[in-house]
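Researcher: Next sequence.
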Amino acid sequence: MAKNKDARPPTFAVSVVGLSGTEKDKGNCGVGKSCLCNRYVRPHADDYYSEHTSVLSTIDFGGRVVNNDHFLYWGEVPHRGDEGADCKVQVVEQTEFIDDQTFQAHRSTNMQQYAKRAASAKLQSAEKLMYICTDQLGLEQDFEQKQMPDGKLNVDAFVLCVDVGKGCNRKFDDQMKFVNGLYSQIAKSKKPVVVAATKCDDPVEQHLRDLHAFVAGKKNLVLAETSARANVNVELCFNALLQQLDKSRAKPKMLPYAEACKVQRQLVASATERFEKLTAQLVRDHRATCKGALAGMRGNPDYEDFVALEGSRKARGMLTKHMAQLKQEHVARRREEYLATLPKTLNNLLSRLDEVEHLTWAEAQSLIRRRPDFHCWFVVLERTPWDASEHADGSDRRIPFDLLATADGERVFRDHVRHLQSEKRRLDAKERFKKTLERLHFIGAGQPWEEVACLLPEDEAHGVPGEADRRDVYARHQREMVERAKEDFQEMLFEHAELFYDLDLNATPSCDKMSEIHGVLSEEPRYRALQRLAPDRESLLLKHIGFVYHPTKETCLSGQDCVDLKVEQVLADRLLRREPELRRYGGADVDKVNLCLLGREGLPQELANEIRAQSTDDEYALDGSIYELELLAVDVNSTLLFSHTWLATFKPHGCFCVFDSSESLNCVGDCVGRIRAEMAQGRGETFAPPLPFVLILANQRDGVCKNVPILRHQGQRLANKLQCTYVDAPSAAFARKFSEAQVKQGLRAVLDGPRQNSDAPAAPPPPPFVRDASSEADLRVVMCAVCWDPFGAELILSPFLESRRCGADGPGRPNALLLDKMVGAGRRRIRVSVLSYHSAIGVRRDELVHGYILVYSAKRKASLATLRAFLAEVRDVIPVQMVAVTDSQADFFEDDGVKELMTEGERIATEIAAKFTALYSLSQYHRQTEVFTPFFNEALEKKADVESAFWSDGASRERAGAGPELSRSSPLARSPAYDAYYPESDDDNEAPPPYSPIGDDVRLLPAPSERAKYRVDPEGNEYPLHGGAPAADHERNHKVPPPVRPKPALPRPGVKKLDPNLLKTIEAGMRGNRRPVPPRGHADDAEASDGYADPADALLRSGAFRPDDVYAEPDDARDRPLKFRDSSGPGGGAEDENGYERKARTAPRPTKYKHRSKILFSKTKAYQRRFHSDSDGEESGPALQKKKKGRAHRGGEEDPLLSPADPWKGGIDNPAVTSDPEQEDKKMKKKKTPKTPKEPKKAKSSKAPKPLYPPTRRTWESNYFGVPLHNLVCPERPIPLFIEKCVDYIERTGLTTEGLYRVSGNKTDQDNIQKQFDQDPSVDLLALDVAINAAAGALKAFFADLPDPLIPYALHPELVQAARLADYAERLHVLKEIVNKFPSVNYHVFKYIITHLNRVSQHSKSTLMTADNLSICFWPTLMRPDFENKDTLSSTKLNQAVVETFIVQSDFFFHGGDAVRHDGAGAGGPPPHPCRDMVEALLPLQLPPPLQPQQIQRALPPEPLV
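Model: Next structure:
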């Protein structure tokens, strides 16, 4: 043991000895001394070498490792015992090296025999290096070099190695003889000795027993059974030796080899299991590399433990095996996917059983390859089999065609054929069962399956295999039955139209009325068909009642089949507002029209070809005139648009802008803005009318396109923004992209505008909102049709649309058309409003109508019933034309139902002296306006009588409130807007219906505070004064009428108070019989400026109700105003209660058609007689009149219950009239509650725009795209890598591409670029060979996907303010200060992209992308504005100008250069101010105001009574 003066751990030197010498002495292999030393000194599996040779060359023997000695220094091993102190063990091996030339031992300084030399306790060798392996010899510099300490060692103990293994050609007895002699020499040194039995992993049991016997015969000798190769008991051998050197250490237990080997195997198995788990956890992709996987495992304890025990080579082998297994599993999964998809594929390609039932599998494969959509499902690979090709690892999920050649493919095919056969049998059985159910008449709607199953015939009950199928068929049969029963029930309700016509105003009929309805309907089989579905039946009934009360197109039960919607659509497609006269431009006849056709991708040329196909020798016939058309088809990418001379050369009168996608729509919008800007600069100060633009949507030829509604919406929005006409694509399927109706509508829009290049100077535009009084129609006719009738709206409109002198009516009347026709002695203008019957109810009451054309279907009873109910309430002075519609004349003779309905219609027409005609859908003869000529003549003849009866109508006169300034025949005296929004009295407080048949564009009146801003023309029209500030469109169209002043209670002395219910009944009857009186002034105690308007019916009423005065008219009513007497003056009490007296003479009493027709009268009377038969038999005359109670007034019609001429009518109990104290209290509280005025809207404060977060365009998960910008950059790389790659690729390959950044790339290619970058950021775009436009689109998409725009929202207002600066130099410096406020990350990226756009603009001659064009394409992406915000729309041009300035002046803003002169500014001046280009686009849309009654425009001062 080395002496150790310091406190350092002790160091022991151990010498390993054993049989050595020549091959003759030791055999063909050693005894394992070197392997034992190797395993103990370097136990790591990668550091263990199983081959160590003792045959060396002279040079190797003289090297520093051997150093001419017959021993090796293996190094130093630190050791820490469980209880003993720390120590170090230096290991040397005593051997004998043989010369590879002489095969004799090398000569050394110590020439003693091996036994004596090996037992030596002192070893010395200067500068001797540590031995590692045989490869180290001669290459010492490539291995670790560590010298033997001090060049000498004192051996403290010995390990005697004895080989007990097989395979050596030596005798064990000779080895034991040598060992015995060697032990004798070692024993003399009195050093501890441990015998190591080596190669025990493959021992000879006899040798091991002999060795045990040898050891047992020696005193204090220990035997350790070891195996260096299996690393068993190696460390135990040296630990036993250390215990003999250091007695403080615990004596180790010497385990037999078998037991120790078991422990070692458990240790290795545990490490292997943990390594396998680690591998399965980290390596999941079969495409991963072994090198990369091992690199990811380094440092993991499980990996390090396994490598230490088994070695990295075995770890690599296990990893390779694992990845091969992953590959097999992946291929197996893909195979299962393909086989799972194959049945669906075969079901699509081979869906017919008769085709494949008798085919072999080879024939079926040939048939599959011949299918047109074969490549959508299969892929033919060049390299087979598929699992050895790249297809197995790709994203293509199509089935490899070579998979069909396998047995699994044929098996799937056979299963598919059997499935088709089974499905066919199943469907046949279900169909037979369905027919069986249809034959069983005892099955009713809503009947459960359990009741029917037991009643089915025995042979039919099992006709369908499976209970589920039977239930499914029955459920489908029940759905059809219920749907059919509900349709029949709804049709029955329409057939009983007269039953619902007198419902109460509040749409809550009384119990008696509901009993009457159910009593009448219960006799119908269609009513009883829903007996099991009573809740649904009641819901349908109440829904029908609600529709009767609110008859609008929104609540129409026919939905999209409503006549109002269909007529609007037909008129919008077939007509545009036009005058029947010859069109003229500034007084000159229009004979030649130059049209510019603008679009992209060949659309302009297709439109030009379509127009030429509709023309004859370039002459186009339109509305009776012939025009010579000069067409110029221009593509938006053409260089012609960038020429400033084409407008002056071609001189277009209009421009057709066609589009079929969002991209083409954007391009067209940009071009229109550019053309308008050029025209605005060219016009200068002289006035010239703007060029008309027409936006046309091309038809989708496939007929079904999901993008059509989106394109229609986008096109309408752009047309509103550009203030131009929008022409929609045909709604029905059309073979070509453009229809004749589109061309005609667009050409009319161009002809309506002034000629652009007329030789004569253009007159200044007329003042806005001025209408010529001569534009009013001479006759107003209403045509009515029934919703759900079995004919289209085109059929009933065909007599008018075929006329060349037919045009659309003005704004606000989408269902009306104007007809210019010879009627009587001259040409008349006839307005025909085509409405549904439910919409015509309001028109019948509120508007002046000179005649009705009532259309019904001769194949539908409900159609005639609706006509009867409507006609019954029409005044008998109004001419009526009845039209029966059927397919042909043969229907009258072949169909009894058609014959009955046509006969009944003709009888009604005969009874009321109306015109009757038939319209046949299969005939063209009756589709002419001449069929209505007699009716128009009659309407013209009775025009005066109709108007007289209209104005003499008491309710209409009171509601209209016509003053002396309005002519009795003037249409202005009756405004639907007034009737719709001003109730007659405080009882009529119902809200206006949601839909008015006159249209939604009716403008309400201005507030009293704004009356000064309007001028009143002689006819009562208002239009804004030119000197005032123009009102916004939404303010002009949505004025709220002033609140109605509450009526003061008039004292009536001497009059007893009547029952309030009786008063309401009397007032309900009088309301239809009052006469209008000129409006009175304000009372003395009322303030004229209190914000109230006088109620329209705030008149002093008559104190007595006399039936003979209802229809009386003053003698001088037509010649002078009525005389009034103030009731508050002296002697007022001597007059009537209302304070005035009148002298009147009776006029012929108007009546309704129901009183002139027995059919109409009997239909109305039949329902009431059926319900009131008992009461009518008991009471009559005055008793009955006393018992009646008035019901609420419906639609301003004459109330039949209160008419003295109709005593046979029975009253209906009305809950609104019945005395109820609680209801009265609620009404009084409701009336007394004052309405709180609405708070005025706060002014919009100028603040930063609201951030807009549009939905991402990506459909995959990404950790790069759509994340904040600061997450993608670092100080070393301030620009995101994706931006750099795209910009580099574009600048290297795409700076000559025409339309760069404007022409949209393929979205799939853009997504693929981003996906490839997601998977591998080092992807090379050049290698991908992507399209330039796709790369440009991917770059723009990167900015669009950012959570926040590159230009921060907070700086948008400052940029807009800077853009408004007039001084260009000041504007640049302010913009530079703003851009310096950008966040650092945004600044560097903005600088980079603007510099790139500047370089792109320098190649504008080839790309056609100037700085202006680039700014148009990029500013929405960089700023991401909210286009739904009005403020954003107003600053659009300014934002674009800001980005353009950044591009043009990029050197000034970012690189310290000087400001450059802008080429577009003319002679070197600064660029024009951005607001100048907005003049043309922001011209306000000027529409004439709707007609308003003059009475409610301003308060009339009280006039002295005469």
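Model: The first strand starts at residue 11 and ends at 18. The longest helix spans residues 312-349.
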